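For reproducibility, we list the full input for the 3-(2-carboxyethyl)benzoic acid complex.
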Amino acid sequence: MPEASELDPPGGRSRAHLPLRLVCVAADDAQSDVSEEHLFGEIHFGTRSSKADAHESDGILVQVPLSQLGGAPIKERWLSPSRVEGGRLGNIHYRANGEVLFAYAAFELPASGAMLERETQQQYESVLGLIKSHGYPYLLRVWNYLPRIGQPLQGMDCYRRFCRARYYAFVGSFEDMIPQLPATSVLGTAGEQLQTVVLAGKRRPLHIENPRQVSAYRYPRKYGPKSPLFARATLARWGARNTLFISGTASIVGHESRHPDDPAAQTEEILRNLDVLNDEVSKQAHAPIPGVERARQLRVYMRNPRDLTLVRRSVEARTAVDAPVVYLHADICRPELLVEMEALIDLEASSSADSAG
Ligand code: 3EB
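The corresponding predicted structure, in tokenized form, follows.
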């Protein structure tokens, strides 16, 4: 375990009691920062084939085929203060440290809609089976990278098919699924594979909905035959420290998309959604939650690279110059949505967080 006095350079805050730590480093950074820590995995962005510098014996290497827009190229390192153990089960790669399990699974998206749904459901069921059987039954955070997200496939787009497959996997895997739904993102890529990254834990997290948005699992049917199943945010409670995972958040109020064709207005709407969400987390956790300007990681996905200047202007009005913001070129699940943002915020657990405050 790290010393209580060990400092985390970017924020100057203690690393102690954080079983999972995300750092963003230069894409070409060697292993320097990992020396006293252990690696769950690394997320690399872009399609260039990166040097295979994170081997199976090391961390899991996830190459997400989304191009980074602007800024120096970064990669994410997911670190553990203690040894990680893991392996591979079918096409699922996983690492765990006694508190958190990090899993990655991918398969080539088939051309038929029915096959896509069957394989997506199977992949989800396998991952849900693995986290349970390894003793990490609580989903904390899920990322999905889905090729052809907005393209119709035999009459229904791939995102809606993905949602239906995920729905059946959850229904079949959990007795009471809604309280189990974690913070999630689904982004469209120009790649070939459905890639899924999962964090799961041993302690029950707090899942939070956004009062400004209809819960996705209650969306009306016009958005697809089966609802998207996710929570707006998940608070992982480690003990002395917490981590807040904020889902991909779009310009949606109620259940309706707002400001089609206006990327700046969509970004402002997203920032309002994030502020209201943080207020809600503060209420439910009985602890004030810092705003997105204090995020350890802020990802901004946008459909059109030409919107970068406008979107960045809105984001930078809210964040420090050195904030860990990464802009990525990605498709969003509804055709009129141009921008989506997600965040990870490290928190001190307030002493009142576990009491009625
Ligand atoms: C939305 O709020 C926008 O299907 O898991 C954001 C985050 C979105 C997660 C998902 C979808 C998902 O409906 C899209």
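Residues 228 and 326 are 25 Å apart (CA to CA). Residues 163, 184-186, 216, 228, 230, 247-248, 250, 252, 333 surround 3-(2-carboxyethyl)benzoic acid (CB under 6 Å). Both points were considered when choosing residues for closer inspection.
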